[in-house]
Write a structure and sequence with these properties.
The protein is of the alpha+beta class. The chain is built from 16 helices and 18 strands. Strands 6-10-11-18-17-16-15-14 form an eight-stranded mixed β-sheet, sandwiched between helices. Strands 1-2-3-5-4 form a five-stranded mixed barrel. Strands 7-9-8 form a three-stranded antiparallel β-sheet, with no helix packed on it. It binds one RNA strand of 76 nucleotides through α1, β1, β2, β3 and α5.
RNA sequence: GGGCGCGUAGCUCAAUUGGCAGAGCAACUGACUCUUAAUCAGUAGGUUGAAGGUUCGAUUCCUUCCGCGCUCACCA
């Protein structure tokens, strides 16, 4: 981008000429009488005669998205609030100075106009302008007017331009806003209290992921950007907040992909005196309600498929049943429930699957439960388009969940899958401090085995549990992924306004080391 | 990180077998007082991502690098 190129200079020149006409270059305010959407809503069905009979005076503001000059008159389309309205400027009506100003306008400029509503010969609702006020200059040219901006990199880097040019992008983010609103409303309706817990944590806990590290100078300590708020929210249940939730960012230092961004938004909530089944039903309701609030119905398009969010369409099965159900024919006879009990039989399942289907990584030293979870991802996740709740996860991959009373290798935990994505995760919260210590210790063994993502020991968390945490169910819900599903967006970057990108050449940030030295 | 693909004017895209780098929109000048992808006449705009190589000649072929996209493996 050249800020000193010809068009930029030329438009600066025009801005000076506009000032010479007595219009400030960057005025402070403009008192409009209507938004464009209000006018479209109120007057779209009024006839030409009707508008002439009782004249409607309006004052609107917007960005010029199309402009046509014809000698001593002209048209333009103003865009505001994602809507467009045509204006008609006639030299006789706006005067010499007003018309001079109109001739100095460019695509992308902001103006305010006052006038009355009428219909043109072709019937388009328009404003017959009697006064133009200049509001702000667009010094850089907008992208081409009917293809818009399609270059994906530019769309993400210059989202402001993307939003001006592509109304469907604006729509996605309005829907995302409605989604978050709906989630908050559902939580509040159930008596949950919204809280904010640390983003910077001395121990990155509550999930299994690699964290980002940062440093606090005064305390001279490293801190982790949180990978989850979980352990803090559960401390709050110890403190007597029986129903708490937080909607905020988590940070995970992992790869990027169509459903992964290093920072992502999560709704996480904890409800005392219930278990995984209680929060399962609640989460299903919340999600179904969100679909209704965002889209107005319970059926949404998802690529080639249609997702039905209505209650009766939800399926529930255990992880083991899902592996059996979705077991590929090519991999031979379906597994039996008993195949999931011993290390040896799990290993042979993996071997059968790998031989027939595709290769999944397998480390014979890892716990059988971890292998089973990997097997589930490979066998079943790809098949789960319609809302499906998978329950009973291996204890080995669930260090914070309560075990099933009759099967200690399995936990009271579930996840919701929709459109081949995990969108929520909930469980009966482990509140026995001694059991929790043992789970952390076995995670530490995994860490020693080379699993960088295994959970760290958190002594203060165990101390909190030792004061007595009520029985509780807790849930994490991926807001970005739900937004993707409800807007038919097939990459997470289309529901994040400013996704992470490599820094642009020439726009590089200051070296953090320099900054450190300056402040030291 | 591996594999595949892409990078040409501000934007959207062309360029035959390796043979003069082009169009539309945007911009500039002029005409036009109901247009709407306004129209009409004219003008300007390029280190073809960068460096190197092959060749009489490279947007085109080769190598390296940079950037982007898709995809596979790990994470939600």
């Amino acid at each position: 981008m050249a800020l000193d190129d010809d068009i930029y200079q030329l438009r600066r020149e025009k801005l000076k000429q506009i000032e010479a006409l007595g219009q400030p270059a960057y005025p402070r305010k403009y008192d409009f009488s209507h938004t464009i959407s209000q006018i479209l809503a109120e007057y779209s069905d009024k006839t030409a005669d009707g508008l002439e009979g009782s004249r409607v005076n309006v004052k609107i503001a917007g960005r010029i998205m199309a402009i046509r000059l014809m000698g001593k008159a002209g048209f333009a389309h103003l865009q505001q609030g994602g809507q467009r309205l045509q204006i008609y400027i006639k030299k006789d009506a706006v005067g010499d100075k007003g018309f001079e100003l109109y001739k100095l306008l460019d695509l992308g400029d902001h103006v305010g106009v006052s006038g009355y509503l009428f219909r043109t010969r072709t019937g388009e609702l328009s404003v017959h302008v009697d006064e133009i006020t200049f509001l702000s200059k667009d010094l850089l040219p907008l992208p081409e007017k009917w293809h818009g901006l399609t270059d994906v990199e530019l769309r993400y880097r210059q989202r402001y331009v993307d939003l001006v040019m592509n109304p469907e992008v604006r729509e996605v983010f309005l829907k995302r806003g409605k989604l978050v609103q709906s989630l908050r409303r559902s939580m509040e309706a159930q008596g949950f209290v919204e809280v904010e817990t640390p983003m910077m944590q001395p121990i990155a806990g509550g999930a299994v992921a690699r964290p980002f590290v940062t440093h606090h100078n005064t305390l001279d300590m490293d801190l982790y950007l949180r990978i989850a708020p979980e352990l803090y929210l559960k401390r709050l249940t110890v403190g007597g907040f029986d129903r708490v939730y937080e909607i905020n960012r988590n940070f995970r230092n992992e790869g990027l992909g169509w459903r992964w961004n290093p920072e992502f938004t999560m709704l996480e909530f904890y409800q005392a005196y219930t278990d995984y089944r209680g929060v399962m039903d609640l989460t299903q309701q919340i999600v179904e309600q969100a679909a209704k609030d965002v889209t107005g119905g319970t059926r949404t398009k998802w690529g080639e498929d249609e997702i039905d969010w209505a209650g009766p369409n939800w399926r529930r099965m255990t992880m083991r049943d899902a592996i059996i159900h979705y077991w590929p024919e090519a991999a031979g006879a379906k597994p039996e429930i008993s195949d999931f009990t011993s290390q040896q039989s799990v290993k042979s399942l993996v071997q059968r699957f790998n031989a027939a289907h595709r290769h999944i990584a397998y480390d014979p030293k890892e716990p059988a439960g971890k292998t089973i979870a990997g097997l589930f991802d490979a066998v079943a996740e790809e098949q789960l388009i319609q809302p499906t709740i998978i329950s009973e996860f291996p204890t080995a991959v669930s260090p914070l969940s309560k075990q099933k009373p009759d099967e200690p290798d399995w936990t009271e935990r579930w996840e919701i899958f929709v459109g081949k994505m995990e969108i929520a995760n909930g469980f009966s919260e482990l509140n026995d401090p001694e059991d929790q210590r043992r789970r952390f210790e076995s995670q530490l063994k995994e860490r020693e085995r080379g699993d960088e993502e295994a959970h760290q020991m958190d002594e203060d968390y165990i101390r909190a549990l030792s004061y007595g945490m009520p029985p509780a169910g807790g849930v994490g819900l991926g807001v970005d992924r739900l937004a993707m599903l409800l807007t038919d967006s097939h990459t997470i970057r289309d529901v994040i306004l400013f996704p992470l990108l490599r820094p642009e050449k020439g726009f590089a940030a200051e070296d953090p080391e320099d900054f450190k030295n300056e402040t030291a």
